[in-house]
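Blackboard transcription, Thursday session:
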Amino acid sequence: QKEVEQNSGPLSVPEGAIASLNCTYSDRVSQSFFWYRQYSGKSPELIMSIYSNGDKEDGRFTAQLNKASQYVSLLIRDSQPSDSATYLCAGGTTSNYKLTFGKGTLLTVNP
Amino acid sequence: DTGVSQNPRHKITKRGQNVTFRCDPISEHNRLYWYRQTLGQGPEFLTYFQNEAQLEKSRLLSDRFSAERPKGSFSTLEIQRTEQGDSAMYLCASSFVPTNTGELFFGEGSRLTVL
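(Written on the board underneath:)
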């Protein structure tokens, strides 16, 4: 298994719908997890971080972590066209704080 | 603006030439990372520094690549004898450890095109 794998997409949802993005990871990146958003031609920007099992909500975004299943997800509620971007899942360890990224999932929100 | 700054933003060069990229991290950050990203892929780790010490280099980083952070502030990434396969976006990121929680703050990147 690659260290961080994402559902390859692309994912297309209508405006106002819930977008669900998923990521699995290996034991080598098992401590801290991040979701970055990357607009075309731009650099990644952090939108969510999660460190313990369960859900973490921030506005329209909810990150979910299940360490037993080695699974992390991001839900975007009430999707907006401005959410259209590539979403990168990243995992890291507290031993070196180096992040390993997945390939990303391209999300398109259609008006 | 006190974010991560990278220069140049774009570089077009001919195969075999040397190129150098500069990164100025957020001023209080002690960690500096270099990543490379190609189209359709996530960022791939190249190397990182804590202060002036280079702590890890990826196997992706061939002998043609060298990175420095001489005074623990800005960093340079040099690619010698560039090849077409070096064409990519080179991303610099910084963070502060151990007090921060691991998130990286990225610069806008330096896009390299090797003809």
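Lecturer's comment: Chain A has no helices and eleven strands.
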